[in-house]
């Protein structure tokens, strides 16, 4: 079943056309990966889905409902969470305050909090620390934890491994596998090894257009296509 | 220069951080002034002035921090607050002059409530009609809010005239407490106490409530708060109304402090209010309080020690602090 459908999405930022024509379907469950070179339009795609940039024309359907043009807050309340590239944590708030802000009721569900602490033990250890004082990896964990503190149908995650140590990347991959059992993840990633280990389906964006889409298994087997679209051998 | 500022920063950090600056300024002034009675009188005056400036500046700082809006029209709320409270106090002259402190307090409360109510309603109108169309456009914000400030000043002129308006004070706030050879004006002590109460309430609201959590988060990263499912634009209306009401209350208190007010009151205070916000750090209530107390103390000490430097003292203070901490003493974003 398709969870998210993007059709002919075009996004302008000021006078620049960043997305020319983006169309792809994200099936429910698992990890869908968006690949592409720097500046291809991956982040803009996520921001356009989230309503942070307004696509025009084009449409975004979530669970069959047209959410194009809705306010970002209304899109989030429909069950879509966003983990931006810069993590978007609130530095002067404590770890717990960052998390509680993301809850609808203003209270923790003990079971969900326990799950988060099991996935990211550092967040339990530093729950009263101001978030600015966390390490880069811990900030990324907090950013992901904030996205799953409430039940969500879809999480948009933008380059979560950027600048992280290999051990943290491994822990993050493990966490994503666990999260993907209950929540669909739309992942933007440049680290192809990381993306390949998680993704079931994928699309490649190049110059604001979808250049390829299909299964990750097929794409991983086609090195010539990888070289052409991602310049991995360069 | 860098070594000096680093050493100063480390020493201050160990001893309690920038919060100690008012104490350091007060201690330095004590040495320069010499006479303890004069020093204490000036310190109380500085603290009272600081608290009133805090009321006027706190809303501006939150609005600036939360929505990146430069509102030069903020002074209109200060001016209107002063004139509306003065008018209410004049109308309740009988209660003010009465021997009953209860009637005195009721008259004062009515005046302050009138100013606050005006601030809330005018704040809603100002945000909806004037500010909303110019979000994310600083140049237009400056032009339109300066225009609004001029219109407000002229409206006051049309309603109340250009002659300075005398402001009556309640009987129970007249006079001074004489402790030894120290004279402490009762109104100043009252202004300080009321400002402190408002600060505690604001601090509690920002640090112990969900709305406060949202405001603090919104000051840091508005986009992310919206991505979590909250309408920051709706939150902003509330913050703008609160800030306008606090500015009007500050204006009402300032009117009683000065006892003679003109339509230019808000415009004249605005420069100092902006200095307070910049010194304190955008979007930070604690920073605004710190900046306001520093400006209040410096204005009074320098006015006594070197009257010719009084006007320049706040500018010098701002330049010195910005050279040391370019984002202000306690910015909301780290």
UniProtKB/TrEMBL annotation, chain A:
PROSITE patterns: ABC_TRANSPORTER_1 (PS00211), ABC_TRANSPORTER_2 (PS50893). The keyword Isomerase does not apply. Keywords: Amino-acid transport, ATP-binding, Nucleotide-binding, Transport. GO terms for molecular function: ATP binding. It comes from the Bacteria. SMART domains: AAA. The keyword ATP-binding applies. InterPro entries: AAA+_ATPase, ABC_transporter-like_ATP-bd, ABC_transporter-like_CS, BCAA_Transport_ATP-bd_LivF, P-loop_NTPase. PANTHER family: ABC TRANSPORTER ATP-BINDING PROTEIN (PTHR43820:SF2), HIGH-AFFINITY BRANCHED-CHAIN AMINO ACID TRANSPORT ATP-BINDING PROTEIN LIVF (PTHR43820). Belongs to the ABC transporter superfamily. This is ABC transporter ATP-binding protein.
Automatic annotation (TrEMBL), chain B:
InterPro entries: ABC_transp_permease, BCAA_transport_permease. The chain crosses the membrane at residues 12-33, 39-64, 76-97, 109-130, 142-162, 186-206, 235-257, 269-297, 304-324. Keywords: Amino-acid transport, Cell membrane, Membrane, Transmembrane, Transmembrane helix, Transport. It is found in: Cell membrane. The keyword Hydrolase does not apply. It is a multi-pass membrane protein. Coiled coil: none annotated. Its main location: membrane. Pfam families: BPD_transp_2. Belongs to the binding-protein-dependent transport system permease family. LivHM subfamily. This is Branched-chain amino acid ABC transporter permease.
């Amino acid at each position: 079943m398709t969870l998210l459908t993007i059709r002919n999405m075009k996004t302008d930022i000021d006078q620049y056309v960043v997305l020319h024509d983006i169309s792809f379907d994200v099936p429910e469950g698992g990890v869908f990966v968006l690949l592409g070179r720097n500046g291809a339009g991956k982040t803009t795609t996520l921001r356009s889905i989230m309503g942070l940039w307004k696509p025009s024309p084009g449409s975004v359907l979530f669970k069959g409902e047209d959410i194009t043009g809705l306010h970002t807050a209304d899109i989030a309340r429909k069950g879509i969470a966003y983990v931006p590239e810069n993590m978007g944590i609130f530095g002067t708030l404590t770890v717990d305050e960052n998390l509680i802000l993301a809850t609808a009721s203003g209270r923790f569900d003990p079971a969900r909090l326990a799950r988060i602490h099991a996935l990211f033990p550092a967040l339990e250890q530093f729950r009263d620390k101001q978030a600015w004082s966390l390490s880069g990896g811990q900030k990324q964990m907090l950013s992901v934890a904030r996205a799953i503190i409430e039940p969500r149908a879809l999480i948009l995650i933008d380059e979560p491994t950027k600048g992280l140590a290999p051990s943290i990347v491994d822990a993050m991959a493990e966490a994503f596998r666990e999260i993907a059992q209950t929540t669909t993840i739309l992942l933007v990633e440049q680290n192809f090894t990381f993306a390949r280990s998680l993704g079931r389906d994928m699309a490649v964006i190049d110059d604001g257009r979808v250049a390829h889409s299909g299964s990750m298994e097929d794409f991983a087997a086609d090195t010539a296509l990888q070289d052409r679209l991602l310049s991995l051998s360069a | 220069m860098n070594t000096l500022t680093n050493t100063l920063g480390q020493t201050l950090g160990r001893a309690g951080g920038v919060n100690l600056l008012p104490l350091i300024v007060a201690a330095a002034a004590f040495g320069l002034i010499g006479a303890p009675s004069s020093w204490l009188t000036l310190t109380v005056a500085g603290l009272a002035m600081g608290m009133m400036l805090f009321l006027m500046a706190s809303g501006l700082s939150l609005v600036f921090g939360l929505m990146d809006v430069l509102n030069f029209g903020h002074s209109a709320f200060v001016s209107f607050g002063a004139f509306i409270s003065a008018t209410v106090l004049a109308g309740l002259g009988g209660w003010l002059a009465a021997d009953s402190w209860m009637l005195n307090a009721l008259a004062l409360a009515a005046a302050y409530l009138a100013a606050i109510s005006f601030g809330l309603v005018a704040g809603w109108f100002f945000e909806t009609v004037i500010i909303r169309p110019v979000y994310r456009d600083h140049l237009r914000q400056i032009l339109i809010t300066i225009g609004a400030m001029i219109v407000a000043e002229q409206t006051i002129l049309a309603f109340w005239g250009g002659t300075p308006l005398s402001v009556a004070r309640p009987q129970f706030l007249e006079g001074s407490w004489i402790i030894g050879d120290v004279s402490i004006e009762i109104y100043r002590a009252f202004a300080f106490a009321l400002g402190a109460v408002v600060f505690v309430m604001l601090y509690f609201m920002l640090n112990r409530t969900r709305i406060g959590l949202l405001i603090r988060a919104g000051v840091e990263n508005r986009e992310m708060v919206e991505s979590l499912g909250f309408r920051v634009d709706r939150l902003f209306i509330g913050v703008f109304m609160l800030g306008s009401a606090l500015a009007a209350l500050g204006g009402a208190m300032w009117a009683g402090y000065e006892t003679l007010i003109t339509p230019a009151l808000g415009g004249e205070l605005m420069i100092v209010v902006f200095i307070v916000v910049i010194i304190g750090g955008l979007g930070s209530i604690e920073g605004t309080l710190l900046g306001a107390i520093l400006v209040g103390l410096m204005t009074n000490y320098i006015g006594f020690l070197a009257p010719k430097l009084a006007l320049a003292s706040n500018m010098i203070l701002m330049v010195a602090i910005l050279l040391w901490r370019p984002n202000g003493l306690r910015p909301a974003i780290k």
